[in-house]
Amino acid sequence: MDNMRFLLAALLCLAPLWADAGAKSAFDKPTLDAYIRHALVIPANVTMKIDDPKPAAAKGFQEVAVHLTFGQASKDLTFYVSDDGTHIFRGDLYDVRTSPFQAQLDKLKTDLSPSYGTPGAPAVLVIFSDFECPLCKQEAQTLKDHLLLTYPTQVRVYFKDFPLDPIHPWARTAAIAGRCIFRENPKAFWDYHDWMYAHQEEIKPDNVKAKIMEFAAAKNLDAVQLGRCLDEKTTEGEVNASVAQGKSLGVDATPTIFLNGRPLVGNVPWEQLKTIIDEELHYQQTAHNAGENCCEVKIPSALNN
């Protein structure tokens, strides 16, 4: 009889475990895959890769990165899963002790990137752009017309390559050339930047190199060195690194600007951008948790000047 009571007690203790044995958990990758596809209407021909969970900044949750690919297009999503695997959410996780955009600031690296503006400025704009993108051309013109005129000492701008290969066939060549020119003459990069956008409608996949060499001749750049750099794709690794950084930040469209880490997607009209910059400058007067020191790795080099 005592043995029977012990067996019944053991069965009662195990009953909750049996009840949960068939329960769904977001830590089961096939379950999470199916759930996300259903929630976000992601078709089967989109490849989904789910990373292993890692501790999230918020207690009680694990962070899970999800990578979507379709052909050459890709998009990264971040989900937070409760420790018991029953709840998930998408969104931004904030820590009031740091910048609301600390996660972005931690990933932004601007060393050896073309820049203009004031070193040490309280407002830093990092622009992921594509030379073949019409909206990028418009945003570049907006910044050229207004930014330094309005903020002569308060801003610093960095350029990052993000060629949209699936839809812009000559953008990568232009990005590689831009990095080649930056290596040879950092100050000439911005002339190239402006020239490529000014001549954007004239450039085609079959004449892009000739157009780049036309610019080089007008600026007395070393055509032999530039041609070799282009033919050998010497700087493509730098372009790839810039694209990878953008993807880690969730960039999937150009232009995308990070203003002290705050993402601004698309061609932002000047009055709207000015309002956001003004608010950021006002905030930085007391917060001091972004600006020039937020996202720059200091490397002694003439290219940083």
Structure description:
By secondary structure, the protein is α+β, with helices and mostly antiparallel strands. It has 2 domains: 23-90; 102-304, Glutaredoxin (3-Layer(aba) Sandwich). Helices cover 42% and strands 18% of the residues. The chain has 10 helices and 10 strands. It has helices spanning 2-21, 29-40, 102-107, 134-150, 171-184, 188-198, 208-218, 223-231, 236-248, 270-284; strands spanning 47-50, 54-55, 61-70, 73-82, 88-90, 115-117, 123-129, 155-161, 256-259, 262-265. The strands form 2 sheets. Strands 1, 2, 3, 4 and 5 form a 5-stranded antiparallel sheet that branches. A 5-stranded mixed sheet has the order 6-8-7-9-10. Helix 4 (134-150) links the parallel strand 7 and strand 8 (155-161). Helix 7 packs antiparallel against helix 8. The protein is globular, with a radius of gyration of 25 Å. The protein starts with a helix and ends in a 21-residue tail after the last helix. The model is unreliable at 10-21 and 294-305 (pLDDT under 50).
